Amino acid sequence: MKNVQQVYVLTLHASSRPKVRLWSGTSLHALRHCSVSQLGHALMDMQQQLETLQRAVATPATGGSYSLNRSR
Question: Which domain of life does this protein belong to (predicted)?
Fold first, then answer.
């Protein structure tokens, strides 16, 4: 099974009844509206990716200091 990167976009629709919609896809150009059945899976995947990113940022890099902004 290939590990395909997913793009998620949350949009807020400011109509008489505000709604949040979730869009997902393999790129910004391939976004599709998530159905109710896909919503739970998408939110779990987003949470796992966020936790992985937080661990990577919290863990100091080996072999010296590292900065996200290397231009300074």
Answer: Bacteria
Write the pLDDT tens digit of every residue in 9-46. 888 877 777 788 888 888 988 988 888 888 888 888 88
Half-sphere exposure of 12 (CA within 13 A, CB side): 2
Measured CA angle at 68 (ends 5, 23), to 5 deg: 30
The predicted model scores a pTM of 0.54
**Distance separating alpha carbons of residues 19 and 11, to the nearest angstrom:** 8
Ordered by start, the domain boundaries in the chain are 1-35
